[in-house]
Design a protein that fits this description.
heterotrimer, A mainly alpha (220), B mainly alpha (74), C mainly alpha (258), A: 220 residues, mainly alpha, 9 helices, B: 74 residues, 0% strand
Chain lengths: 220, 74, 258
């Protein structure tokens, strides 16, 4: 198990070019809004939570394809299904490693982007926390979509179609937590919801992903 | 009957646009469904017939050598 | 308790389903046409207008059944998805493929009639409250299932992927259902519950109930007919299909007879 984690991290690190893309995307999209909407403090600080959350969601979706694509193409995904370890655990490892390399950087960069978008200082902790809880959920839900579409050659849009409806509650609660904090209201309710999603995701998503991987591998 | 006359019925107490628009969408949906059902049945039958024609032509006894390459490899 | 498993086994046979649905189809079609016609005429002309909303309330007789079916069709699809994944039943795959477009259309109808009704009642075409937003999400989920069947190369892999998508997506249905209870939203709570009498008089909820049953019959008729079309193509190599639709030149190339 430890070997698998180490291998997974090493492989992901070797493909860091693909992982940096979502991060750059996140930064670029957040930079577009002041140019397109208004550089005024008043306007930006109102929509900062929303921009950050939508950009983080889209960035999370960008790199989903590489979660399973390389393993599928060289056959190691199929090998994983034959392993004597439960596929559930293997999927959990993959998702967690993927989040560490792609979701966590988004969380770490978000305070900088928050400053850039004039997010009120009071809302910073809630924003980081909401992304910290929310990006794993996005990774887990996204992994189901990625596994379902890995056998398609051009599955890009379908992943979005399948996975964005499921993302919507996460975006709603995540953004609402930051907005509440910016207004000085407590955001514990929304954060607890996100935590609940995260817990439910850890328990159920690897199961769905494992089933999806078996489907993808068996139908060729 | 809650309406005294046909113009009253159409106007629906000045909510006529909304009510008739909604029922209109409903009727449109029903029409689309019927068209889709018919088209779908025709397409499926046509695709099935293509397989039947190909099988009969290709595997009918004594027919092998007389088949032009186009017919077999359809 | 002895379970009659052979009853379940029957349901896995496309041939049995085809014959059963042929018997039911005329009934379902006529029930659908008559019930919906009765409900529409009753709702449009004979039901009293709502004392607050006036005649725009008549949209209720279309909006309510379509909203109910928007949720329940997806539940049926999720159950079929479970059956397909666990027991590998082909008919369940076919059901999902056929039900998804119907579900999408009826959800769109619910959204459209709701928006049109909202304008005179709430003053706005749309509001991002819990029920409307989650119904919109439901619409996208249906489109996702349709896209899976369009994109995947083999029907079998598409069926299994769609089954999983339905199982994952079904979590949205309780969200729609309970959203009006969990959150203070603009949308009103349910009209029909299992425990209480509806708050409106009989001449208003009766046509609604008839409409709901009529819509379910419509769903049944459309689904049965389309599943038959699908079965004709998928089982085209079997003898019983060819005898029915290609009687002069029946030729069985494989031993697939079901």
């Amino acid at each position: 198990m430890r070997q698998l984690i180490a291998t997974e991290l090493r492989l992901l690190y070797r493909r860091k070019q693909e992982l940096v893309n979502p991060l750059l995307f996140f930064v670029l999209v957040c930079s577009l809004f002041p140019l397109a909407v208004s550089p005024e403090v008043g306007a930006l600080e109102q929509i900062a939570p929303g921009i950050l959350w939508v950009a983080a969601t889209l960035a999370s979706m960008l790199s989903l394809d590489m979660l399973f694509r390389h393993d599928y193409d060289d056959g190691s995904l199929e090998q994983l299904t034959f392993s004597d370890r439960p596929l559930y655990l293997l999927m959990l490892v993959k998702i967690v490693c993927y989040w560490l390399m792609s979701g966590l950087p988004l969380v770490l960069v978000s305070p900088l982007l928050g400053l850039m978008l004039f997010l009120p200082f009071d809302a910073m902790p809630e924003m980081i926390l909401s992304l910290l809880l929310g990006t794993p959920v996005l990774a887990m839900l996204g992994s189901v979509g990625a596994a379902l579409t890995v056998s398609l050659r051009k599955g890009g849009v379908i992943v979005a179609l399948l996975v964005l409806p499921l993302f919507m509650p996460v975006i709603i609660f995540g953004s609402s937590a930051v907005v509440a904090a910016a207004q000085g209201l407590p955001a514990t309710g929304q954060l607890l919801w996100l935590a609940a999603f995260a817990v439910a995701g850890i328990c159920l998503a690897p199961l769905a992903t494992a089933t999806a991987v078996r489907i993808a591998v068996s139908c060729d | 009957m809650y309406f005294n006359s046909f113009p009253d019925f159409l106007a629906m107490g000045n909510h006529g646009l909304y009510v008739w628009l909604s029922y209109g969408f409903f009727v449109l949906m029903l029409i689309w469904m019927v068209i889709d059902l018919r088209l779908n049945r025709k397409t499926n039958l046509k695709n099935a017939e293509r397989t039947w024609a190909r099988d009969v032509v290709a595997f009918a006894p004594g027919n092998v050598s007389q088949n032009s390459p186009e017919e077999i490899s359809e | 308790m002895k379970i009659n498993w052979s009853w379940f086994h029957k349901w896995t046979s496309p041939k049995w389903f085809f014959q059963m649905s042929e018997a039911w189809l005329p009934w379902l079609t006529w029930l659908a046409i008559s019930l919906i016609s009765v409900a529409v005429v009753w709702g449009l002309a004979f039901a009293p207008p709502d004392y607050q909303q006036g005649n725009s309330f008549r949209i209720f007789y279309i909006h309510l059944p379509s909203a109910i079916l928007a949720q329940s069709v997806f539940i049926f699809m999720a159950v079929a998805g479970l059956v397909s994944l666990v027991w590998r039943v082909k008919l369940a795959d076919i059901f999902i493929k056929v039900a998804a477009p119907f579900g999408a259309a009826i959800t769109l109808l619910a959204l459209l009639t709701g928006a049109i009704w909202g304008k005179p009642t709430w003053g706005t075409w749309w509001i991002w409250d819990a029920r409307l937003t989650s119904t919109l999400i439901q619409f996208f989920l249906y489109l996702g299932v349709i896209a899976i069947f369009a994109a995947m190369e083999t029907v079998e892999s598409a069926g299994r992927a769609a089954s999983l998508a339905c199982l994952v997506g079904v979590v949205n249905v309780p969200i729609i259902k309970f959203s009006v209870e969990w959150w203070n939203t603009l949308h009103q709570p349910a009209t029909f519950t299992l425990t209480e009498k509806p708050a409106m008089p009989a001449e208003m909820w009766l046509p609604a109930l008839i409409a709901i049953i009529g819509f379910y019959c419509l769903f049944g008729a459309v689904t049965f007919y389309k599943m038959q079309s699908e079965i004709i193509f998928r089982e085209r190599r079997s003898r019983w299909v060819q005898e029915r639709f290609n009687p002069d030149k029946t030729h069985v190339t494989s031993s697939e007879e079901n």
